[in-house]
């Protein structure tokens, strides 16, 4: 009984201290409904508000708007997709060394397929122009399949 009272007082103190620094998440979205910004708001904190803008990665589909028209390059695959962000057409270039592109598919963020095309072996540099004129602004995933069975996912933004 002697140890129970201090234990409950310590437990109450811990619970009260976590409520003082309560946190809230705030999200911003673009016109297409894509999450563009994530903001942690700490109520009654002495720290500054932390803002985190998500960065694109292979496992995270939340992305910020690219800051330049620099192409997406994968040096290991020699695959280039440009411009990003795009307005009308996406260009995909590939220099086949040990493998070649077998198909390209374009999906919206909800999984709707907008473009699909299969290819045969090409010895020279591969170049495909994918039209985006009829697509609404937002983020799209380009799935490139190769002859060795591997796939590469590229994220592009249509303005």
- Strand segment tally: 11
Q: Say what the CATH topology of the largest domain is.
A: Immunoglobulin-like
The string of secondary-structure elements, in order, is HEEEEEEEEEEE
The CA-CA distance between the termini, in Å, is 67 Å
Unreliable sequence segments: 48-66
Task: Provide a descriptive summary of the structure in words.
Keywords: Signal. This is Putative secreted protein (Por secretion system target). The protein is mainly beta. The chain has two domains: 44 residues, no CATH class; 87 residues, Immunoglobulin-like. Helix content is 11%, strand content 43%. The protein has one helix and eleven strands; from the N terminus they run αβββββββββββ. The strands form three sheets. The chain has a four-stranded antiparallel β-sheet with strand order 4-5-6-9, with no helix packed on it. A four-stranded antiparallel β-sheet has the order 8-7-10-11, with no helix packed on it. Strand 4 and strand 5 form a beta hairpin. The longest helix has 17 residues. The protein is elongated, with a radius of gyration of 24 Å. About 12% of the residues have low confidence.
